[in-house]
Amino acid sequence: MLTNVHWFNKPEGHLKYVDLCKESGLATGPNCLRQEVEIPMKAKMSLVC
Prior knowledge:
The structure is a single chain. With 49 residues, the protein is mainly beta. Strands 1-2 form a two-stranded antiparallel sheet. The radius of gyration is 14 Å and the shape is extended. It has strands spanning 15-21, 34-40. It starts with 14 loop residues before the first strand and ends in a 9-residue tail after the last strand. The protein has one domain (13-49).
């Protein structure tokens, strides 16, 4: 088990919230179960489930 591990700082101001399909991890389509996640501001969501 890891103890006293220092993780990187969250890049505040450089992230955006998007809805992803809980099953595929792709951008949500009309029949998807949605899960809101943070991704880099410049990330492109080109594939849709």
